[in-house]
Design goal:
- The chain has 312 residues and is mainly α.
């Protein structure tokens, strides 16, 4: 039985004995052996998903040990520590508000992990942060909002579908806190808009669902009622999408509300002409075609025809 399963079972059946077990296990987190630190961290991470640690006044102790593991030399320990901190959202959601600033700082540090070649720590940080956002104080997230939005943007195009999905879901969740930074966060939405719309053609259904969610969340912040309604009505998770018709109408609203963005939108689409995903490669020129179709004459001069024809 793995450490996480043991932790889950003990949380259910061995509550009164947990304080002594936790006390005896804490020293192993300083073990020279990676395997011991991994096992104990996995055990503690699973305990944090149960309210028993809160009932037994163990939450702060276990949370502090997880926070300290962020500097561990073992990548798996760092990843499991973030998972544990994210599990507080289900084990003791009321405590997330109290410790919000500390938990958010841990997630941001995880996304900025410099020794994470496959972005496993970053993935865990993004997934855990999405869980915590339902319970944090708005003031705690505001100061980190733009940093997080900018940091996760490159993951939208990751070759790893889990990273694409988690980063896009997190971006959608962040928009709930954008009203205090409307203009600045709108810029982040506009920066990611082409990518989110193109990844509606992503080969992975879970990424498509994430894009639908993120665009529905972004709609109210864009200041365009037509786009808000389109995203809300056409991007419901269970609804199939006629992509060409949808994009035609999206581009009409974009050129009515943001005509000055034409060249910027075209340049971003040109990048996807070389996408490794065939459906996205096909969607990008269609996107440009609909933009040009709906732009008014006053803004046509934005289009660099030589660049457009060369596709570069």
């Amino acid at each position: 039985m793995c450490a996480a399963s043991v932790g889950s079972a003990m949380a259910r059946h061995a509550g009164p004995r947990l304080p002594l077990i936790v006390k005896n296990l804490i020293p192993t987190l300083s073990s020279v052996f990676d395997s011991q630190r991994i096992t104990t961290t996995a055990f503690f991470a699973e305990l944090l998903s149960s309210n028993v640690v809160n009932d037994l006044i163990l939450l702060e102790t276990v949370m502090d040990t997880m926070t300290a593991r962020q500097k561990d030399s073992c990548l798996l320990v760092r990843m499991l520590a973030l998972r544990g901190l994210g599990n507080i959202a289900s084990g003791a959601p009321d405590k997330v508000r109290k410790h919000g600033a500390t938990l958010l700082a841990s997630m941001v540090n995880g996304m900025d992990d410099k020794d994470d070649p496959h972005n496993l720590v970053a993935l865990e940080a993004m997934s855990s942060l999405s869980k915590l956002l339902d319970h944090v104080e708005e003031r705690d997230i505001q100061s980190m909002l733009l940093h997080i939005a900018i940091r996760i943007r490159p993951f939208f195009d990751s070759e790893q579908p889990d990273l694409r999905r988690s980063s896009i879901v997190l971006f959608g969740n962040l928009t709930r806190f954008s009203h205090g930074h409307c203009e600045v966060f709108l810029e982040q939405i506009l920066n990611g808009l082409v990518t989110l719309l193109l990844h509606l053609q992503d080969p992975k259904p879970e990424v498509v669902r994430a894009c639908k969610f993120a665009l529905r969340m972004c709609g109210p912040s864009m200041g365009c009622e037509g786009l808000r309604e389109m995203f809300l009505n056409h991007l419901r998770e269970e609804r199939s999408l006629h992509y060409g018709e949808f994009m035609n109408n999206v581009c009409k609203h974009l050129m009515q509300s943001f005509p000055e963005m034409l060249n910027r939108l075209i340049l971003t689409n040109l990048f996807y002409f070389k996408s490794s995903w065939a459906d996205i490669r096909a969607a990008a020129p269609m996107f440009i075609g609909f933009l040009v179709l709906h732009v008014d004459e006053d803004h046509c001069q934005q289009v660099d025809l030589d660049q457009l024809i060369s596709g570069e």
